[in-house]
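Suppose you are handed a protein chain with no further information: no name, no annotation, nothing but its sequence. What can you learn? This example shows the usual starting point.
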Amino acid sequence: MSRYIAFLRAINVGGHNVKMDLLRSLFESMELNNVDTFIASGNVIFETDIKSTNNLQMKIERQLTNALGYEVPAFLRTDIEINKIAKYAPFDESKMSTVMAYNIGFLNTLLTKEQQEKVFGFNNNIDDFHVNGKEIYWICKTKQSDSTFNANRLERAIKVPVTFRGIKTIQRLAAKYPPIK
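A reasonable first move is to predict its three-dimensional structure. Written in structure tokens, the prediction is:
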């Protein structure tokens, strides 16, 4: 049995308010086990014997779209992957000392070289980016509201869905759900 964390986009933002009890019951109806939610922003933890992440992702997206009436992209990571992401340090300490916001964007595919260049095109005196695997690491030296960067602009540039979570959320998830042995 493997443990996954599903990062769902379009949950409790933009007028789409979904109760966590409903979200848990939707995941349980897909015969996923030990379903839990973590803060009310579309983070669902569950266990399954399903081996194909792609099939699992499509199953979740289809169920949520049917139940909620709008498209809900899902980004799946194992507990092992979340632990590695939480510990990964893409920026040197001198940069991190001036950061007010640190976020991680989750993708479902690896970015091409051209897509990565588009991500790095958002670098400026406020924002800095790093790509590792299927994650985009973004630090902002000021309040995020002062930045011209946002996920919608990024998606238009790279032409694939993405959802962002703060590093503290990822670190808390890694601590609460260590890898199953």
